[in-house]
Amino acid sequence: MRDTTNWLQSVLIIAAGIIGAFQIGKVAIAIPLLRDDLGLSLFAVSWVAGAYAALGVVGGMAAGFVFSYFALRHVIIFGLLMISGGSFLGAMSADATILIVSRVIEGIGFLGVVIACPTLLRSMVTPRTQQVVFAFWAAYMPVGAATMILMGPMLMQGDWRWLWTLNGIVAATHAVLLFVLRPKEEVAVSRRASPTIGDISAVFKAGTPVLLAFTFTLYTIQYFALTTFLPTFLIDQMGLSLEVAGTVSALAVIANAVGNISAGFILRMGAPLWGIFAVVFTTIGVCGVAIFHASSPMELAVAAAGLCLGLAALMPSSILVTMPRLLSSNQQLALALGMVQQASSIGQLGGPAILAFWIEWQGWNGVSYLFILIALCGLTIAMLAKKMLR
């Protein structure tokens, strides 16, 4: 157990997650340019966005098992290099097929980063600071996505390939930093004993980690559906320019980052996890109607998007902060985080595709019914969580 928190290493580890999330935001803001350049339909673009999570869908927990055989820092560096290589390949894509393949490569790297980072981060902090540091870690997704959505129009200058190239450079540079600035004392903690069948059994027998993973799936379906297509919605339905739509969308995602960070402090004040779930899913249902109803003015839709992403962010952060306290070892934590990442990947892959299908089936105005359905499922889970966490 550490006596002091290594803040430099904590920042570097969290930054690796943020760079992984850059790759989600870059697609969201580049959708109009991708459609024009490659002639893609909205549904095809949803697969470009969702392919990033393809491996995580089928092997998130398995990846947690495999990655546990390697030094954590090496896994993160490998992940960043895969993200870099995928970004450079994507920048050279002439059609959707190569672009989707490049996104799968990026996704392999992202999976390594998000599984290894929390476990390595746990070894860099004291029990006193763990809850707060993990709350900041949980914000990596909205911080990274918002940064790309906000800066994307300026960085692209009308050519989405520039954004892919710059992301490749950033990921490779950070991989070098993590290698050069590695602490000497990490040798003892960077490799952990490989998980056993007993560890796998313990995670499933605990029950609560499985329920939390399922809850994460529902959250990520609405999160990735909304963040991926919010710029497109603002352009197509509200008539905003790419730059203005990007700024508005980034502000909404920043609200998500604030919610993620706030969750750690709210839990410390004694808020029950099931109560947070109930608030989050009620907000998703109400805001879904406010955003997508045909009569909603732009101001209401934008405010509702920010409120939805902001309050909904209390849930993933609460889950990630709670998970280390439910499991007795790093081996079990890695497996549980792999399960959560698998659940997240299902939402990341399915969210944009489900929303694109729903739009083509019901139109933008019918999307509110999708959000109501997610809310009802989530409220049912909140009641189950109340019993299991008692």
Can you describe what's shown?
This protein has 390 residues and is mostly helical. Helix content is 82%, strand content 0%. The chain contains 16 helices and no strands. The protein has helices at 7-38, 42-50, 54-67, 72-91, 96-122, 127-138, 140-156, 160-180, 197-206, 208-236, 242-268, 273-292, 298-312, 314-326, 330-362, 367-388. Helix 10 packs antiparallel against helix 14. It is globular. The chain crosses the membrane at residues 12-34, 40-68, 75-94, 100-121, 133-156, 162-181, 202-224, 244-267, 274-294, 300-321, 333-361, 367-385.
Kindly list the characteristics that best describe this protein.
0% strand, Growth Hormone, Chain: A, 390 residues, mainly alpha
Mean pLDDT: 84
CATH topology (level 3) name? Growth Hormone, Chain: A
Low-pLDDT parts are 187-191
Rg estimate, integer Å: 20 Å
Number of helices: 16
Helix/strand-derived class?
Answer: mainly alpha
Main beta sheet: none
CATH architecture: Up-down Bundle
Q: Tell me the name of the CATH class.
A: Mainly Alpha
Strand runs, count:
0
Strand content: under 5%
Annotated CATH homologous superfamily: MFS general substrate transporter like domains
**Helix/strand order:** HHHHHHHHHHHHHHHH
Tally of structural domains: 1
Distance between the termini: 29 Å
Proportion of residues in helical segments: over 70%
Overall outline: globular
Main location: membrane
Protein name: MFS transporter
Keywords: Cell membrane, Membrane, Transmembrane, Transmembrane helix
Membrane topology: Multi-pass membrane protein
